[in-house]
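Quick review question:
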């Protein structure tokens, strides 16, 4: 049965929500976020080959990992290569440990995409009817591919969804999910069967999200990849240009210097800055976030939502958090860039800020943009 292939990601790691709905801090005239029904993201297909080692351009805040910031992953190809190698080494653990923890934010973004395509967001809203002639969608920085099937289901029958990621290994994991979808096509029933049949064409490719396959796309979707790109503003402009008339983009990212005022990610950022002598945010590399709204307006986009979204994440204890972040998460890139000795030398300093046998619970703040290309 198809249901046997579905595994609730929440069973892999604990996810604790702040509220039954997302806690969102929105600018004036922005609506609160309405997430998908509980458990929606738990119905994503697991890789058919779970032992694959892969990497992803999806990541945590830029200010928490110098190797993933826009200044560190700059114009040099060596920085991109480092990120791809890091995610290749870390990604199977990332897929198990971080994908479920980031699930609430992904649910919010998917819900926003559905609302926008259904015409519930902002004027004018004949989106489904007008965008209906376009069935192509792009998932930029697709990571292990957990978003591909839900995006296809939202776009609808006959959709053509392409995921692009910097890491060949992560694309292999995404293709494992796609292969599982293909094997189950037509065998499932009910809601699962509807989602599978909606996935008429799904592909994942190794590529640069700054230069994605040309559109036009009715939808562009990206969660936690933008902050790692060499030029996030240019990436947004490129994605906006690739939208079809009335096409919609949903982009969630970790805003530099604004993710946590206190907490484990803020603690790591402080330690790194002390070691490297860098100034605290806002630094030169974090200025781009202040220019996002103006850049999209200049590109002719209609901003439908611009919100900060928080959810709580729980870890067993400081050691659990540290091992996850440095072995399977974005801090692993620091091992490749600065060496194991440097990273391991920070362990005791990091853990000393927390009770050794107590859980770590923190509430990172992501920014979510929803914008539409006018007719």
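Suggested answer, residue by residue:
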């Amino acid at each position: 049965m198809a249901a046997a292939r579905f595994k609730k990601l929440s069973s892999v790691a604990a996810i604790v929500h702040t509220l039954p709905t997302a806690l969102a801090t929105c600018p004036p005239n922005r609506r609160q976020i309405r997430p998908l029904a509980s458990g929606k993201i738990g119905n994503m297909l697991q890789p058919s080959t779970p032992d694959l080692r892969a990497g992803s351009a999806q990541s945590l805040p830029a200010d928490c990992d110098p190797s993933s910031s826009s200044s560190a992953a700059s114009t040099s190809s060596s920085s991109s290569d480092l990120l791809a190698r890091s995610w290749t080494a870390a990604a199977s653990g990332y897929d198990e440990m971080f994908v479920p923890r980031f699930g609430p934010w992904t649910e919010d973004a998917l819900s926003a995409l559905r609302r926008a395509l259904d015409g519930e967001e902002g004027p004018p809203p004949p989106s489904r009817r007008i965008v209906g002639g376009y069935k192509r969608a792009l998932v930029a920085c697709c990571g292990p591919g957990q978003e591909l099937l839900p995006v296809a289901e939202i776009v609808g029958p006959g959709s053509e969804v392409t995921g692009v990621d910097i890491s060949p290994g992560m694309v292999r994991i995404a293709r494992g999910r796609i292969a599982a979808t293909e094997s189950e096509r037509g065998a499932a029933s009910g809601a699962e069967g509807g989602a599978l049949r909606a996935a008429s064409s799904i592909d994942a490719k190794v590529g640069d999200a700054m230069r994605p396959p040309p559109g036009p796309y009715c939808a562009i979707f990206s969660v936690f990849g933008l902050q790692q790109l060499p030029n996030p503003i240019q990436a947004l402009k490129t994605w906006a240009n690739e939208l079809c008339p009335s096409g919609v983009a949903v982009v969630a990212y970790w805003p530099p210097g604004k993710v946590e005022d206190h907490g484990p990610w803020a603690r790591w950022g402080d330690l790194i800055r002390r070691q490297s002598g860098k100034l605290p945010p806002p630094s030169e590399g974090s200025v781009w976030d202040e220019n996002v709204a103006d850049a999209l307006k200049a590109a002719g986009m209609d901003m439908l939502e611009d919100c900060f979204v928080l959810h709580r994440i729980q870890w067993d204890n400081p050691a659990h958090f540290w091992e996850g972040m440095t072995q399977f998460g974005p801090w692993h890139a620091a091992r490749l860039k600065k060496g194991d000795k440097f990273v391991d030398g920070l362990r005791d300093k990091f853990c000393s800020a927390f009770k050794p046998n107590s859980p770590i619970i923190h509430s990172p703040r992501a920014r979510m943009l929803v914008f539409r290309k006018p007719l």
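Why it works: The first strand starts at residue 15 and ends at 16. Residues 1-57, 60-76 have pLDDT under 50 and may be disordered.
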